[in-house]
Amino acid sequence: MTTTESFARLMSDAAAMQERGQSALRALREIGEVQVGLSEKTCVYAEDKIQLHRYVPLARSARVPPLLICYAMVNRPYMLDLQPDRSLIRELLSLGVDVYLLDWGYPDGADRFIPLTEYVCGYLGRCVEFILEQNAIDALNLLGVCQGGTMSLCYAALEPRHIANLITMVAPVDFKTPENLLSKWAQHIDVERLTQSGNVSGEFLNLVYLALMPFRLTQQKYVNLLQMEGDRAQLENFLRMEKWIFDSPDQPARAFREFIEWFFQENRLIRGELTLDNRQVLLKNIRCPVLNIYAANDHLVPPSASIPLGAHVGSEDYESLQVDVGHIGMYVSGKARKTVPAAIARWLQERKP
Amino acid sequence: MNDSTTTHPEAPPYLKAWDDYVSACQTLCERLSNPAAPAAGSAVPLAFLGSWKDFAASLGMRPDAAPGESSNPEDQFASLFPALGYSREYQEIGRRMLDLTGQFQRRYAEFLQLSADIGQSAFQATQRRASKDDTLLASPAAIYDAWIDCAEEAYAQAAHGEPFARLLADLCNILSGFKIERGKLLEALARQFDWPSRAEVDSLHRQVHTLRSAAVKAKGAAKTRTAAKAGRSARADTAAKVGTAAKVRMAAKAGRAAKASAAVKAKGVAKATAAAKPTPGAKRRGKRKIRKTPERTDQ
């Protein structure tokens, strides 16, 4: 093809795309604000910025201990309940699981001196105790997602008697593997300096996430948006996702510094050198059944960061589940939706007391 | 290299993406259709680069200012000498901020160069793909997608390297330093206006945090004490109940034993009267009877 032909093709292509784009823009204007996290829930416990929600059941109880979901602090947990047809929580509810969700909220300046210990042993610990008391049980099921998975591992190692079964999802355990780009970048960051002037802004975190795959995340996806024409459902899906991606809470300075230094830079958890609440966090203390779910194409938490968990926990009942999706696909993709909630419910059912 | 876009910096990202798309397609179509043309990697816009500069600007830095450029010409002269006089502390802060801006600009220029190399590698990879697949050139959209794939691959290769990690960390550390200096300046300003300053608020937060921790500990301790007390009183209650029941049982047992003994004696007297010497079998039967009787009573 000659340059002139290419150029002519480009022009006609561009004109067609412009037309589609205009239709997409018109539809975008009409959509307005998108709704997320629609499954019915009640706040049953609150403390400072955190809230513990209990979801209204959608099916007959599976008669397994309640499942507490501990999500990451760096993103909002409504990703697990993005919309009715893309909701891990809804799927679990429809399988009869009693679901609680720990929402860390939006930390502000008042939280900048709160240590990581307080988040793990304090807030998370008190939520666990609340659920145990409310249900008059000795142990519950804990599902830790992403950074929340790492925090859940710490808690389960410190308070094993409270955890009946532990599930980790896209949770990093070994922070220093060759595929872990975030970790490579974190090694030279002066976190003390970064957090000296206060909390770490969500905008900064977004900048870092976008830098992981800049061409796809800042260019191609918007070009694709313009190709969607006026497909309202598709556009709404896009907007919900876009809202979640950039709805990053500021990170409480001290807890963030400790997390980056202890986990990313020093890899203390897997080395058995982590101390929280003046107690050593030893993964071998986790003796309850463990299900480790990870994504094969995860660019944030590569499989190599999650897989080593099996070799370090003390449990004799350890299972792993690889899903052929990316990090975000784990929560919303059709493939994950078909396999993950059912796998969790079945696994819990098989281990019910 | 050009890292700016023709759209307004505040324009929605899809408009920027549109601009980038058209520009990228145009450049790629032109260059790939004409293999004799010089490599065009640097001509393809890498839109994401602007984000770091935008972020720096959001912190109050002037990343586009010429090196050494200052809003006040006197500052340039003053920068040759140590800070002196009444406002020397502020001058020092201002100088450190200028110095950090300069550092950012230098490292950012290196970042741009590194990105230009990535663009170059990506273009070459796209060129190789196009030479193997004729259909690519027939569709600008296909070329664009191929370019994105190649750009991500080239980027990932560089991003995993040590120089990139150092560069990114330096940019981040410089911006952190700038933010600290900016905070000092705002702190001074707040003091002058008698506004609550960050340091003041931080101090209050620390106190609140300490008080909260103490309160939580005290609450925990009180809970433990209450539980222990409840445990003790429950044990005492149980012990008392157990004791009372035991006493009742013992009294009943004693009463039954006394009755039984009296019965045995009475029976013995009767038997003795009947026969001078009782048989051992009759004695055993009598004992069994005595043992069973209280059990029946208990039930």
Principal-axes geometry of chain B comes out as elongated
Structural class of chain A: alpha/beta
Global mean pLDDT of chain A: 93
Number of contiguous helices of chain A? 15
Describe the global form of chain A: globular
Q: Low-confidence segments of chain A, ≥5 residues, pLDDT <50?
A: none
What is the share of helical residues of chain B?
Answer: over 70%
Oligomer: heterodimer
- Strands in their spatial order, largest beta sheet of chain A: 1-2-6-3-7-8-11-12
Radius of gyration of chain A (CA) equals 21 Å
Count all strands of chain B and give the number: 0
Number of E-state strands of chain A: 12
Structure description:
The complex is a heterodimer of chains A (353) and B (299). Chain A is an alpha/beta fold and 353 residues long. Chain A contains 15 helices and twelve strands. Chain A has helices at 3-31, 88-94, 116-135, 147-158, 181-186, 191-196, 202-212, 214-226, 232-246, 253-265, 268-271, 303-306, 309-312, 329-332, 334-350; strands spanning 41-47, 50-55, 67-70, 81-83, 86-87, 99-103, 140-145, 163-169, 275-276, 279-280, 290-295, 318-323. In chain A, strands 1-2-6-3-7-8-11-12 form an eight-stranded mixed sheet, sandwiched between helices. In chain A, strands 4-5 form a two-stranded antiparallel sheet. Chain A is globular, with a radius of gyration of 21 Å. Chain B is mainly alpha-helical and 299 residues long. Chain B has helices spanning 13-33, 50-58, 73-78, 88-132, 140-159, 162-193, 198-274, 280-298. In chain B, helix 4 packs across helix 5 and helix 4 (88-132) packs antiparallel against helix 6 (162-193). Chain B is elongated, with a radius of gyration of 46 Å. Chains A and B meet through helix 1, helix 5, helix 6, helix 7 and helix 8 of A and helix 1, helix 2, helix 5, helix 6 and helix 7 of B.
